[in-house]
Amino acid sequence: MTLTVVDMHTGGEPLRIVTGGYPPIPVGTILEKRAYVRDHLDHLRKILMFEPRGHYDMYGALLVEPDLPSADLAVLFMHNEGYSTMCGHAIVALGRYAVDEGLVALQEPVTTVNIEAPCGLVVASVEVQGGKADAVSFESVPAFLFARDQKVDLPGFGVVGFEIAYGGAFYALADCRQFGLEFGRNRVRDFVDAATALTEKLKAEFPLSHPDHADLAFLYGTILTDGDDAFSSRPTKNICVFAEAEVDRSPTGSGVTARLAAMYAKGEIEIGQTRLFESIAGSRFSGAVARTARAGSHDAVIARVGGRAYYSGRAEFIVEADDELGRGFLLR
Q: pLDDT by residue (tens digit) across 302-322?
């Protein structure tokens, strides 16, 4: 078995793009392809994401044949727990990758890359200068505030307020100060424990629904913010803890989309205002509400999120027949 990959990162968050070694994926919708890979090829995810080739917070992308006629490419996202429905940092990296690899026709000053994700069509705009791809922004699927001004009694923390918003995936949003946390003062581990506690509580007690497909209706994680939601020229900081307590090093593209939807619904940002979002690692994404939309019965927005991605390596991975640990394991 040989698997080949290109490694990139967006705002410090890794993306391992599979370039070879997977068997053909049967024809079907993107959600059917996601289900097939999950049910039949999950051993390959573990080889690529887990140790000794990856780590607890590794993230990956598998390019598949698109089902939507307007899509230039389609992607399945993978991580330590399974397969997500949207990933903004991956879209930023894949936009640059698609231009560099000639997967789309090059146009200056902006090349458009239509990427089919499990949540729907995402349109990436890649800035091109001198034939080289640079910064990338994207407009995702309609994003909306699902639940506003909610409270839950969380063991170990007391009553905390939260909201749930959708940005291609569902996130709980909460002010970190409710947990006695402050960016720059507390350990990342403290944020992870608080966010994970809220995620698990809400998964058990707060049902979700999505107007398009039941496979999209699950809580992906929790984003703890600095509470600075009202529009300001200052960056607002957040940390996203998703999947199986995985920590995003970037500001989280789908999370920024969800935050923008919540901000707009609460009158805290206007159409066209650009806000900066800062990650736990100090990297930044820009974000703005481009226009309003609808998602079933929900008032929604189309958000535009921007960032930069960089290459970090290329690799060829093998698994020897008698190497049980080489099939993947996790320690933390």
A: 999 999 999 999 999 999 999
Mean pLDDT, the chain, as a whole number?
97
The full DSSP string for 143-188 is: BEEEEEEEEEEETTTEEEEEEEEESSSEEEEEEGGGGT--TTTS-H
* Structural tokens at position 65: 């044949």
35, 106, 107, 113, 135 from 132: Cα distances, Å:
35, 9, 10, 15, 10
Residues contacting residue 226 through CB under 8 Å, at least 6 positions apart? 175, 176, 177, 183, 236, 237, 238
Token output for 20: 């070879």
Given this model, what pLDDT does residue 61 score? Answer: 98
Catalytic residue among 87, 119, 176, 240: 87
Active-site residue flag, 176: no
**Angstrom distance (rounded) from CA 241 to CA 181:** 15
For residue 92 the two structure tokens come to 């930023």
Token pair recorded at residue 79? 């991580």
- Which tokens is 152 given? 């839950």
Query: Tell me, which fold does domain 2-139+311-315 have in CATH?
Result: Diaminopimelate Epimerase; Chain A, domain 1 (3.10.310)
Residue 209 CA: distances (Å) to CA of 12, 122, 147, 280: 32, 21, 11, 30
> Between the CA of residue 260 and those of 104, 253, 292, what are the distances in Å?
29, 11, 12
Domains 2-139+311-315 and 144-307 are alike in CATH topology: yes
Cα distance between residue 321 and residue 152, in whole Å: 49
> What's the CA gap between 304 and 124, in Å, rounded?
9
Which of 162, 176, 178, 173 is CA-nearest to residue 261? 173
Confidence tier at 25 by pLDDT (50, 70, 90): very high
* Homologous superfamily in CATH for domain 144-307: Diaminopimelate Epimerase; Chain A, domain 1 (3.10.310.10)
Long-range contacts of 269-272 (CB under 8 A, 24+ apart): 269/230, 269/231, 270/231
